[in-house]
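Whiteboard transcription, Tuesday session. T.W. wrote the structure tokens on the left side:
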């Protein structure tokens, strides 16, 4: 794993990363406790297989990103209110999320002596998870927020400077029974639940 504190050529430490927009808000699905072991095992296997040595998400933070609401210097109540209203509009049955591919996203380029940071992630299959992403995006647009038209639901396994081409993996799944609205304090790597909504149980 590369060091969090690297050095310039003259031995001057790189200062800690300070995002200009530290408050991030997004919609996501989180694993239930019973699913953690299987996904953590796959995370270790794929990172070892592909030489990924960068930083993985903290324990309990593995999730499927559904829609990015925004990055803010300070989260204002009107944006939180609009995002909560968007979530309340969604009605869907619970469903299974399956992954069959892994790939690196472009991420952030190298800057100020730091290497590039590329998310290495699982890609979710087409199906209900993509429909949920689309429905949330439509609700966001109706409430004055900007959604991503072609958002790809994914689960990030690590951030690394290496770029891994798309590859097929043995399928792995979990059942999504709720989705959440998350406030990420990027400077402190803290997640806060702003709200959550149950997906309709199926018999």
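and on the right, the sequence the group agreed on:
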């Amino acid at each position: 794993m590369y060091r969090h504190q690297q050095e310039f050529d003259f031995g001057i430490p790189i200062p800690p990363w300070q995002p200009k927009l530290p408050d991030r808000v997004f919609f996501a699905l989180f694993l239930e406790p019973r699913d953690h072991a299987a996904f953590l095992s796959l995370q270790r296997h794929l990172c070892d297989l592909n030489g990924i040595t960068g930083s993985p998400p903290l324990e309990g933070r593995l999730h499927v990103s559904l829609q990015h609401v925004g990055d803010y210097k300070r989260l204002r109540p009107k944006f939180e209110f609009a995002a909560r209203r968007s979530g309340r509009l969604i009605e869907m049955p619970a469903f299974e999320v399956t992954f069959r591919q892994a790939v690196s996203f472009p991420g952030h380029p190298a800057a100020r002596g730091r290497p590039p940071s590329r998310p290495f992630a699982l890609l979710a299959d087409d199906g209900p998870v993509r429909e949920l992403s689309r429905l949330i995006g439509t609700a966001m647009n109706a409430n004055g927020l900007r959604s991503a038209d072609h958002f790809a639901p994914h689960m990030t396994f690590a951030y690394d400077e290496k770029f891994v081409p798309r590859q097929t993996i043995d399928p792995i799944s979990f059942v999504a029974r709720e989705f959440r609205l998350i406030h990420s304090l990027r400077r402190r790597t803290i997640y806060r639940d702003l709200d959550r909504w149950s997906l309709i149980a199926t018999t």
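Someone added at the bottom: Helices lie at 33-49, 77-88, 128-142.
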